[in-house]
Design goal:
223 residues, alpha/beta
């Protein structure tokens, strides 16, 4: 497992809200398995300092005052492909959420509803999984129900676009507020397996959204 005492997961934090930065910093520094190695309060400061630090996980807000956190997701993906990214944001707009996933984010935490453990979210992605908040899981379930109902008859989903029964079960448990260790205990699987399922959920929902966007555009062209 990545993240042990003596070899913590190194985190760089970019957020223009000094209060949120302080809360996250305190949480990360209180866990010996995670270490905050740098932080920035603006896009310009983040772009400058990211190149001066060695780190494993980027935690970034989408609104950095002088620019968008999406730019940092692009920067990290292009220049530091080994770094994993977690978005910490107030927005849960579908376009922003899935745009972040497309740009490589493996975690998405909503500031207004995330009362969990930031260090646990970091450890989760560092060990090959993903992290998501309960309210976003509920939104994904609602979106899933609507899109399947709308398109299943006219344009059946490819099998690899569909969530498995276990993935739906995990998404429902997350929506109910269970964290990864609790889900793992309930389902009698490892926390890493839970995180891997969540990562697969991201991937499938991204594919599902893109596929239906193409189908919708095609239908509009026909009409």
């Amino acid at each position: 497992m990545v993240g042990q005492q003596g070899q913590p997961v190194r985190v760089f934090l970019a957020d223009d809200d000094c209060h949120i930065r302080r809360v996250i910093a305190q949480d990360l520094m209180s866990d010996v398995r995670t270490l905050l190695v740098g932080q920035a309060g603006s896009l310009r400061e983040a772009r400058k300092n990211i190149c001066l630090q060695e780190f494993d996980v980027l935690m970034v807000d989408l609104n950095l005052g002088d620019g968008e956190g999406m730019e940092l997701l692009d920067l990290v993906r292009e220049t530091l492909p080994q770094v994993l990214s977690i978005v910490v944001s107030v927005t849960e707009r579908d376009d922003k959420v899935f745009q972040a996933f497309d740009k490589g984010a493996v975690g998405y935490l909503l500031k207004n509803s995330w009362f969990g453990d930031y260090s646990q979210a970091v450890l989760q992605v560092a060990n090959g999984g993903a992290s998501i908040t309960p309210s976003l899981a509920k939104k994904m379930l609602s979106r899933l129900d609507k899109t399947y109902a709308t398109y299943e008859k006219s344009a059946p989903c490819q099998q690899d676009e569909k969530l498995s029964e276990r993935e739906v079960e995990i998404l429902k448990l997350i929506a109910c507020g269970y964290n990864s260790p609790e889900i793992a205990s309930h389902l009698k699987i490892s926390t890493l397996t839970v995180a891997t399922h969540v990562k697969n959920i991201y991937r499938k929902l991204q594919a599902h959204t893109r596929a239906h966007a193409v189908r919708a555009a095609t239908l509009r062209g026909i009409l």
